[in-house]
User: Fold this.
Amino acid sequence: MEKIKKVLYEYTTVIMLLIIFIFFSFSADGFLTLSNITTVLSQSSVLLLVSIGMCFVVISGGTDLSVAATYGLGGMVTVLCIQAGLPAPAAFLLAVLTGAIYGLINSFLILKVHITVWLTTLGTLFIGESIEKIVTKGGTPIYLSKVGGLFDYIGMGTLYSSQSESGVVTIKFSILLAIIVALIADFLLRKTVFGRNLYAAGLQRGAAKLAGVPVDKCVALAFVISGMCCSLGGIIGTSVLSSYIPVNGRYYLLDAIGTVFIGSTMHNRGFANIPGMLAGVLFFGLLTNGLNLLGVHFYWQNVVRGLLILLILAMDAYRRNRALSVVKNKK
Amino acid sequence: MDNKEKRPLSSIVIQYSGYIAFLGVVILFTMKAPVFLNPKNISNIFLQSSVLGIVSFGLTGIFIGGGDHVIRGGTDLSITSNMAVSAAIVAVMLNNGYHLLLGIGLALIVSLAIGAINAFAVVKLKMIPLLVTICMMYILQGVEKLITNNKVIPANSAILSFIANEEILFAPIAAWIFVIVALLVYLLYNSCSYGNHVSAIGGNELAARASGINVSLIVASTYLLAGVLAVISGILILARLSSLTPGVGDLMLFDVMLVSYLGAVFSKRFRPNIPGTFFGALFVGVLTNGFTMINVPSYWVYAIKGALILITVSITTMQRRRVL
Amino acid sequence: MGKSDYILEMLDISKEFPGVKALQNVTIQIKAGEVHGLVGENGAGKSTIMKILAGLYSNDEGQIIFDGEDVTKKLNARTVEQIGISFIHQERYVAPHLTVAEMLFLGIEKTKSPFKFMKRKEMIKAAEKMLSEKVGIKLSGNKLIGELTVGEQQLIQLCRALMNDPKVIVFDEPTAVLAKKETDRLFKIINQLKKEKGVIYISHYFGEILDLCDRVTVLRNGMKIDTVNACDMTINSLVTMMVGRDVLEQYPAKERNAGEVLLSIKGLTHKKYFKDLSFDIHRGEIVGITGLMGSGHDMVGISIYNNSEIMAGSIEFKGKKMTRISPQIAVKEKMGYLPDDRRGLGAIQAMSVKENITLACLKNIAKKGVISEKEENECADAQIQKLRIKTLNRNMQAGLLSGGNQQKVVLSRWLCASSELYILNQPTSGIDIGARAEIYSIIDRLAKDGAGILMITQDIPELYGMSDRVIVMYRGEKKLEIETKGNDISDQIIIASMGGIGDG
Assistant:
């Protein structure tokens, strides 16, 4: 009995996710089909990329509110370049570069001007969104006529497609791209000197500094990575829609915070981490999908989503509090 | 040990930088459009700042009691959604023939319940406020859409239009409500012992606890108070526009955060505070109003807001590191 | 129950935690009018029994009688002050942005009903008056707490405690952060207080205990060994009683030979804290540096490690002139710094022991930026064994280790990085005697293996017990530099730290 309790405590979040998965499998027609699951996966690429970016910044000790803006600016730069006739690879490169520069701006303000992370990224969020509005003269979307080639492929290209009784099973290129980025990110964070330094910088900056950790460089790199990941997400976003819709990134901002923090509940010490975040992204995707299949009205989805995440976080908090009080008493 | 050091001029300038910037902007606008300082326009500014200001007071209170930690510090991202839901409740009740006061009463109950849930999660479960209130925000966004069906809903009430249009001393009652609420909240947080307690908790929770203060109760109260203020703001929105537009809460969230943080620049100790938030809200109101007067498109205001945060806050942060 | 001599009695207190008998039938009795010392190693039960008194833990067995009344059931964190027992904790419980008056009256503000408006002017006047009367300092009631020194903040804590007119006051390691002058001031206050109240004084500084206390209770392994009269004891006998074994030599014998010059400082001037400082450190030698609060001695170490606030002078390390030193550069050049703020700046609490140990030498265990798990584990295990770090395993969270063991973790970090210069800032403050001895022998070994050590400390016996050479600073200047040569030079050190014979 004690062992079961222990397992329950350790894997609270995973169990919750499984429960939800099982629930949908039984109650929603068409949920547990290959075509459905692969569709959900393929559609999660943008959220995954934005979450990777957010993950780096959270590990470094902050939150990056400007991901919404870098997502938008990435898409904007892409579309403008394509419109101007530039080849897709060049457009992509410029978009990712924009994200990197944005990350540098953030880190400059945080590290050299010493503004707190929240406020800096809040400010750059505002400024980024207004740049979007200014360039599009008030926020009108830019529609691209048939582009084709790499531009279409990155967002809409399929790697594998087959017919099955339940529907079309597709695995899009975009999710593969996103997963590759995630794997690289995970490797960086868990196995490299940079990753170790970044965790140290985020946990106790002063102590890390004294230990010789190049804190400033690491935090700056985290923001640059975040900017690049988000602008890559923006590229994919515009490819999927063949258009650019300004100021559309705030949705991803909030979901990314959710996925990263749900992911941290799966780490035994509560550190933000990539594998947990992946599960979080999957969770969000499947949740929305399952609710859709159940015919739950769009408005109720927000409510259900919020409640579920709250429940998961609350259970995790409860678990941590209990563990903490046991330790405290021992001393 | 205690010597009154001579303050270098630069330090004094920085301390009053907020006010100086405020004055500078006002002068700038007046030069370009002299009608800016017209009493009617001034009262308009107060009116426009009222909704933003009142809900920001609530957030400011949470900031004061919440401490400084980037992720773990007190915050409430659901506050503007709370306001929107309150307004929606009142509007729908009005449209269904109920008396305004009944609608307000129901909105208050709901809002306090939301505040209580937030408070419980933060205080008792010791969850991270950022996360709790993001979830709550999701939930409320959904609730608002459910109530309003994502459409604009009219809200017609004699009392509401009275508040919005009737004037006392150049200004509509709504504007006066802003000033009165500001005054009351100021007294609460700066003159009452309650305010000292909140401030202490934000500075060092253990110290406050060791002084016998009921930390849980007081932190919880900041969330509840924010809920009440959100309801008041919601009513004012209805009064001003005689309707409720969907999504108004989401748009306002970051403005509210801007104003509450901006307030720190106006204080001696460079921490979030009520008078600072009051001036912050007016500042944003001045900007919005002034830019409209000189025909600058609204999205430039957006950019200015962003730059504002960064400039003024860099000053705040530099000052704080010096003091402490 | 008749009226007894004792103002506070903790009788037969027992407390058990899962797997650990923290207290077994411990009896402590405090008289009004005495200063009662409480000593014991960490884990002996001192903090447990005080937490029970403070209402933070509940005792399994036993009674607590205060002023004749059985309060065993009544004690909890919020009411203990009202009952009449006040605590001056080790941690500074102050909110830096409150004013002196606001802090002093926190929770008991002078207010005007019905809305409890604070009467600020009255509070400021009362605060200044109370500070002057009860603890004898002059402070403006409007000053921000963050602007005060640590000693002043502690006095505010004390004043606050006294405002409730407690009958018993507990001091928990108050002098760990104070300089001699402030300690003397505190003792004067305590001697005043004891005339009417009971004082419990917890400390690791046995010299103080014997100076200040009338009686001393010694705890070991959760049991009371004895309560003795201070005048009957010496430091050695007290130590023996506490650890249960003879600890004749606290400090390792100095059998070290100094080698070549490792660090050479000439005319070093700090923006604020000291000027024109010059001294050398050789390989294999331990140089101790001390002074009162405000002498600047505590800033010397960090200034060598990070010279951003240095305005003039030169630092030469391993024969190389160092123009710009930052922690990153210092680590690269093989310097190591042990900070005095252990939990904040020392070991990273949430990271594992292994991760903490390897933090400064990641480059050595990584190929092209990728960490080798095998090499990291080997490195960590080696250090854990070498320094005898008490931890369940290498992956245990560092924050769960005791203070002494965390200190060892940080030391091993520099060992792992093959540091050649160790700058140790208050290396044993607040650490119990068993762990201290181990740390001393580690430091001695480091020096014997060829490293140079700069030891910053206010513990004078430790200073001349460990150092080959001692530097004393006074008001930002070097006042004395002297070889210890195994002598007790504490007189010369103390006089120098106060400015020298015939000065001020």
